User: What shape does this take?
Amino acid sequence: MRIDISSLNNCPVIIGGGAAGLMTALQMAPEPVVLISKAPLGAEASSLWAQGGLAAAMGDDDAPALHLADTLAAGAGLCDEAVASRIVHAAPAAVEHLAQLGVGFDRRVDGGWQLGLEAAHGRHRIVHATGDGTGREIMRALIAAVRRCPTITLLEGAEARSLIVEDNAIKGVLAVNAQGPLVIDTGRVVIATGGIGGLFLDSTNPAGCFGQGLALAARAGAKLADLEFIQFHPTAFDGPSRPMPLVTEAVRGDGAILIDDTGQRFMADQPGAELAARDIVARAVWRRRAAGHRVFLDARKHPGTAFAKRYPVISAFCRMAGIDPATDPIPVRPAVHYHMGGIAVDIEGRSTVDGLWACGEASRTGLHGANRLASNSLMEAIVFAQWVAESVLGSNRGPLRSRGANAPPPASDPSAVRPILSLGLGVLRERHGIERAIRGLYPLASGPNAASDPALVGLMMAVAAWRREESRGGHFRSDYPDVLPTAAPSFLSLADALDTARHVVETRSLSVGSAQP
Assistant: This one.
């Protein structure tokens, strides 16, 4: 069905078809809203791949205050405590709301919540659906609800290429679909495009998630924050498939252990062992591999023969690779999994550009700090969607003048960026490697080409990593291994990032030039 684009003018526009975008659209009903999704709903959303679940204090032995304490501890001094507190207190009601929307969460035989344990949580508080298929089940329910909602206009197969901004205020969205360029005149845009895993060679994220929303926001003048903090999941399945299948942390919560190819359990003496914070486990696995060993997750005893029933998705892809987790160790390695940084927003999801909000992984709310606590991300997206929707609807803009469709920027291709970032911004970082990444990304980001937007996002991440001369959470520098006594978030604008990158490039050029005879 062909849609008259002019009929959508002045409606709020949500960019992104994952859990954050879908939930924000549903929370706006019955007000009209436009939802732009580059792919069919759910096809390229990281939410669909989420195995772990949602963290919420649902148990009799739990409370939001305990959930908050674990969140702050994992965040390594960079969480916004007020934001984190509000989110964890809202989490139980959000789970109930999802259940009302039709999400089939796992229950005990008595009807109570079946709660799992994941790393750095002090209580069993992870709500699952179909074992390791939580994201898939949530997306199924949300997609069905969105398709039933008559006030949500879906533009599937349309890609937002740029935001129209005047005087630091949103005035429209320039997108492209099969019919060509299109402009939606609007003063209200929500970016919910997901993460940045597609900028790396090894990631658990869909390849189509490579920071498009961050590029849109940065070019519109919005500030980004904490871009250096990238979470590497320590147990991605070590095989040829990309994106890499994930072996959820819940398997370790059930008692599985990490061993190397000699059978040594190398995490046994670490505080928390296999259930230490993800950055600690990822670095331990990385170092073991760097020493020439392969690493495996051994679930033969726990959960043992119950593995296939407990984790049907993981069991299926293991069997496709000729591995039976009940009898064989599972080969694993770290891979990019989640970005703690993103578009800097306040408690209502508002960015530093008037009329621009962000929700989900594309945003930086202050919940995660330097290291996301397991299963807090889906919860953040669901909870924040309500606050973003209320803020958007409470700031109705007047009619905007109609605009013609300008020539859109080219479609993005991150393939040239992936090897550069993978080398420079891996699990372990150091100055020279980061500077090489900056020098490689700077020329790619400078021109209107297919690599420019992915390179721009990667460049801003590299600049943020270069500036943070300490090791904290998901950012570990071997040349600065200690944590600074004071913690502060890092905010970065596009202009500031380009100035810093230019300095790094020119300093290198001068150094090389002076070394020549």
Notes: The chain has a mean pLDDT of 93.
